[in-house]
């Protein structure tokens, strides 16, 4: 193993934080120089921004898992209630990315057992995700990729096909998008072509969702895509 399990866990936590920041357009002028991020200009006017609500939920889950040595939803919710009761109002409101962030501790704790990972994530989806996201497949896909990375089995060339097999379906909107990405990769499509095609597919698949809840709106507003 190139990295210890502790360092791989740290990488997941750092990646989840950076993913949320970049996904929300929280930083502009980001430049990758070697292994350091330079010329970061925060859009947030707070000098010391606190953890987001979903990061706080994940932190409570981590504490609960450590204290109980297992996943105890009652204890997790009690930890949230003790820290910030208003977070409980977010139940059944999460988007795919928000639910994935909140359930990072589950991905870490059960990364060696795909069956238990699926079972616990589906329970989490029932608690946190809104009704516009089918069967928690988004958090399943993300957690599965994390599990592969943690066990050093992540192969970019087979990740999509493995993920589709793990989801067990090709008919849901996310599965169709993943299949479309795989087709574009097989064709050697460039980034701009891929993004344009995904925008078209998302527009068709999520046409019945409110604009603010559609993945299409976030893709269009991403400051890192021209």
Structure overview:
The protein is globular and about 50 Å long. α7 packs across α8 and α8 (159-167) packs antiparallel against α9. It is mainly alpha-helical and 226 residues long. The chain has a domain at 155-226. Residues 27-48 and 216-226 have low confidence and may be disordered. The N and C termini lie far apart (38 Å). The strands form 2 sheets. A two-stranded antiparallel ribbon has the order 1-4. The longest helix is centred in the first third of the chain and has 19 residues, at 5-23. Helices cover 59% and strands 4% of the residues. The protein is built from 11 helices and 4 strands.
Features:
11 helices; 226 residues; two-stranded antiparallel ribbon; mainly alpha
Low-confidence stretches: 27-48, 216-226
Can you tell me the overall shape?
Answer: globular
State the end-to-end distance. Answer: 38 Å
Q: What is the H/E order?
A: HEEEEHHHHHHHHHH
Record field, number of beta strands? 4
List the helices and strands and how they pair.
Elements (H helix, E strand, L loop, with lengths): L4 H19 L3 E2 L2 E3 L2 E3 L2 E2 L10 H16 L4 H11 L12 H7 L1 H6 L4 H15 L8 H14 L8 H9 L5 H14 L4 H15 L9 H7 L5
Antiparallel strand pairs: 1-4, 2-3
Helix pairs in contact: 2-3, 2-4, 4-7, 6-7, 7-8, 8-9, 9-10, 10-11
Describe this structure in a few short sentences.
By secondary structure, the protein is mostly helical. It has helices at residues 5-23, 53-68, 73-83, 96-102, 104-109, 114-128, 137-150, 159-167, 173-186, 191-205, 215-221; strands at 27-28, 31-33, 36-38, 41-42. The chain has a two-stranded antiparallel ribbon with strand order 1-4. A two-stranded antiparallel ribbon has the order 2-3.
């Amino acid at each position: 193993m190139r990295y210890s399990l502790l360092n791989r866990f740290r990488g997941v936590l750092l990646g989840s934080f950076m993913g949320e920041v970049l996904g929300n357009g929280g930083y502009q002028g980001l430049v990758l120089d070697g292994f350091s991020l330079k010329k970061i200009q925060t859009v947030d006017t707070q000098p010391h921004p606190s953890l987001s609500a979903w990061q706080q939920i994940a932190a409570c889950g981590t504490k609960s898992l450590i204290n109980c040595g297992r996943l105890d939803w009652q204890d997790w919710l009690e930890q949230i209630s003790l820290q910030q009761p208003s977070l409980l109002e977010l139940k059944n409101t999460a988007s795919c990315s928000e639910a994935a962030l909140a359930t990072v501790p589950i991905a870490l704790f059960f990364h060696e057992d795909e069956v238990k990972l699926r079972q616990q994530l589906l329970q989490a989806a029932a608690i946190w995700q809104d009704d516009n996201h089918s069967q928690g497949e988004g958090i399943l896909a993300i957690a599965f990729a994390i599990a592969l990375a943690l066990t050093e089995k992540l192969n970019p060339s087979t990740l999509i096909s493995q993920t589709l097999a793990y989801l067990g379906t090709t008919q849901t909107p996310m599965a169709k998008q993943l299949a479309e990405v795989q087709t574009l990769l097989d064709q050697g499509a460039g980034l701009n072509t891929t993004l344009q095609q995904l925008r078209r597919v998302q527009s068709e698949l999520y046409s019945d969702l409110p604009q603010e809840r559609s993945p299409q709106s976030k893709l269009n507003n991403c400051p890192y895509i021209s």
